[in-house]
C-alpha cells in the first residue's frame, strides 16, 4: 500500500519544498550555538561529574531531532500531497451483430492456414475483441443451422463458443438460407437501431428448409444489414479425407447469390482468397460499422496532507512534554 501511495502521490504546491532549506540552517545554528556556550560555574575538578546526567544529555539531543523532523513534516503537509482517482464512464449506442459461419465439410480445405474454418474462427475472434460495446452472437450452419451463442456482451462467452465451432457438429451440406434465417431470428426482437449479420461461406446453397432469397427478403424487411464473405481460392483445393489422405477437390462458390444478399440489404460482398485477405475484410467491416461511444472521465482528488500534519503535531507535543517534565530547567 505504501508503494502504491508513493507511485501515485502528487503535490499541489511543490514550490513549498524550497522551505526544506531551513533544515540545514537549523542544524548549523544548533552546532554554532552549542560551541558558544560556556560554563559559568568554576570547579577545581570534573572528576566527580563523570557519568552524571548522561541520559538527560542524550535526551536533550533527541529533542532537537524531533523539532527538525516536525518542521520537515509540516513542510510536506504544506505542499499538499494528493492522490487523483480517475474513473471512466462509457456510454453510447452499440450495434447488434450475428456472426453466421459455414461449418460444412468443405471448410476444412487447406488453401488457408491451417484451413478455412480455423482461419475464419481466428479472424472472428479478433473482430469480437475489437468491439467492446456491441452485443454479438454466433450462428453456425451446414446442412442445417444452429445458434451457438445468443446476443450477449460477454466477450469470453462469445470467444469460447467460436473456439468450439468445428465441422461435423451439424448434418453436412450448405444451407445458406437457413443460416441467414436463424441469424435474422436472433436479431428480430433487438431494440438496437443498428443490426447486422456477417455471413461467411465457401459453398453453394444445396440444403435447408428456407430458400436464401426468402431469408434475404425477411432481413431486408426488418432493416438488417447483411455482409457476405465468400471464402476460398478458385479451382482445385487440398482437402483432408476421412482416411487422413489429402485429395484435390474443386471449389464451388455462389458469388452471385452472396452479392445479391449483400446489395439488397445494404451490406457489401467480399471475397477472401487467403488469410491476409480475410483479415483485411474483417477490418474493413469494423471500419464501416462504428458504434457511437462517448467516454466521460471523472477525476476525484484526495488530500493526503493530514498524516504529515498529525506527525508534526505529535513530535511537537512530545518535545513539549519532555521539555516541561524530564528536561525541565529550574532557575
UniProtKB/TrEMBL annotation:
PROSITE patterns: VWFA. It comes from the Bacteria. Keywords: Cell membrane, Membrane, Transmembrane, Transmembrane helix. Pfam families: BatA, VWA. Residues 96-285 form the VWFA domain. The chain crosses the membrane at residues 12-31, 58-79, 305-326. PANTHER family: LEUCINE ZIPPER PROTEIN 4, SPORE GERMINATION PROTEIN. This is Ca-activated chloride channel family protein. It comes from Dinghuibacter silviterrae. The lineage of its organism: Bacteria, Pseudomonadati, Bacteroidota, Chitinophagia, Chitinophagales.
